[in-house]
Amino acid sequence: MLTKRIIPCLDIKNGRTVKGVNFVDLRDAGDPVELAKQYAELGADELVFLDISATLEGRKTMIDMVLKVAEHVNIPFTVGGGISSVEDVDVLLKSGADKVSINSSAVKRPELVTELANKFGSQCVVVAIDAKQINGEWLVHLAGGTVPTDLNLFDWAKEVEERGAGEILFTSMNNDGTKAGFANEALAKLSETLNIPIIASGGAGSVQHFVDSFKIGKADAALAASVFHFGEIEILDLKQELRANGIAIRL
């Protein structure tokens, strides 16, 4: 049985880690390099580093920060934000990232997923999908959740899998920052639809929420930000509780 993964997410804006509710009202959560180092030492399985304003502001992900973070961690590390070409990914992987996460650029040009998978291997390609449930339908949103589309979450996830994505990072905008739990029904449907790993994101507020994401949502990994950044849940405690609930996890 494959072990489940716990992944702290560092959302970066103007060089600082930030966290908000439903993608807005951001507050400072600390220095990303220091946080990354701490999480690696505290037992995180992977890290995700997202320059959340890169696409919105037309910037490329901050390479110098990637270099610094990679220097301080010995666990797999995904980088996203403003990635739109094979060249962007080449630079990031050479700077120390293990994987890249693409979102808006994949929707705008789906061929990018195929190009990256062919060039670097599917294991390097994470497609992040920010979706919001509107009138019962999960619709994909772009540019940090600011631009709605008419793309259906499940159709889009299936398409990127077929194009070579190695993993899906699904963030429920309805749940994001609310600490009311993950979108387990949508996660379970994604799990049934796809054959690649799914990372649950948006809504973590308690240890039970993580348990539910694995047992009910059938997620392969669970990602969270504020509960880790502000010390509300300790990673080791969380992992011990998951194991006590019969979930395969690395301690």
TrEMBL record:
Role description: IGPS catalyzes the conversion of PRFAR and glutamine to IGP, AICAR and glutamate. The HisF subunit catalyzes the cyclization activity that produces IGP and AICAR from PRFAR using the ammonia provided by the HisH subunit.
Annotated GO CC locations: cytoplasm
One GO molecular-function entry: imidazoleglycerol-phosphate synthase activity
Organism of derivation: Subsaximicrobium wynnwilliamsii
Catalytic residues (UniProt): 11, 130
Pfam family, one: His_biosynth
Catalytic activity line of the entry: 5-[(5-phospho-1-deoxy-D-ribulos-1-ylimino)methylamino]-1-(5-phospho-beta-D-ribosyl)imidazole-4-carboxamide + L-glutamine = D-erythro-1-(imidazol-4-yl)glycerol 3-phosphate + 5-amino-1-(5-phospho-beta-D-ribosyl)imidazole-4-carboxamide + L-glutamate + H(+)
Pathway connected to this protein: Amino-acid biosynthesis; L-histidine biosynthesis; L-histidine from 5-phospho-alpha-D-ribose 1-diphosphate: step 5/9
Subunit annotation: Heterodimer of HisH and HisF.
GO biological process: L-histidine biosynthetic process
Coiled-coil intervals: none
Stated name of the protein: Imidazole glycerol phosphate synthase subunit HisF
The enzyme's E.C. designation: 4.3.2.10
